[in-house]
Amino acid sequence: MRTIDLSKFQAEPGFAGIFKTIQGVFSYGLDWQQNRKNQEELIEILETVLGNDCVLLRDVDIPRVGKLIPVVLITPVSLMVINPKSQQGFFRAEGKLWEELGRDDEYRLASNNLIRETWLYQKTIEGYLKQHNFSAPTDRGVMIFVSPETHVESIRPRVRVIQADGIKNFARELAISKPVFSEMDFRAVVRLLSEPRLPEKHPFKKPPEEEEASVTEVVAKVDESIEKVTSRINFSRREWIIVGSLGALVIIVCIILITLVIFTL
Fold this sequence. Notes:
With about 260 residues, the chain is of the alpha/beta class. About 45% of the residues lie in helices and about 20% in strands. A hairpin with a 2-residue loop joins strand 5 (about 90-95) and strand 6.
């Protein structure tokens, strides 16, 4: 499996690594570093099963989204968004709901809905590809728990939920499935996601001839109306002199009134 790390703050030894970690936390939040560790644990397992015909992208940064997509796995079978997690405890995934088992042995809504988070990651990638007019065989978003101390009760969840002991079986399913992607489409989608960019703006389309004709008619009618109005106010020379004289008289009267007001103050 080929892994492409798209993060701006990849780990480095020494002070440079610490500085990049701080930058990453400030840019993407306190859970960014833990998310990176979860990715690394998942990659170690997948690499033992998946071959070089699969590409895994880390920290995909879609323009204008503001949140990194943790993992996008592209295989000859499909494209899927994976949200690796390490929360420990007992959980229940039912439809759109994500619940956590409390101390009273009852399930309650968790503070962070991981099902919704994973689903939004998937929809973000689908929307991005649609903007570029690219159709790819996609699967439901996948939430994978890398900790063996996580237990999830799944009841038709909105996304696929895989526990630590099922990661290798998940990878084996992908490895033996019949390819769907053509080689050209596979390379195209890898390029689109490894080099995220905004879609190109389409040039302005010239309106059809019928529309042009109707617009011309409207303009002609407007011009005709303007000519009628201007013809009505086309005064003779004598009338213009009278109008000008009245205007000058009004201005003189205004000046006199203003002067009187000033002197009376």
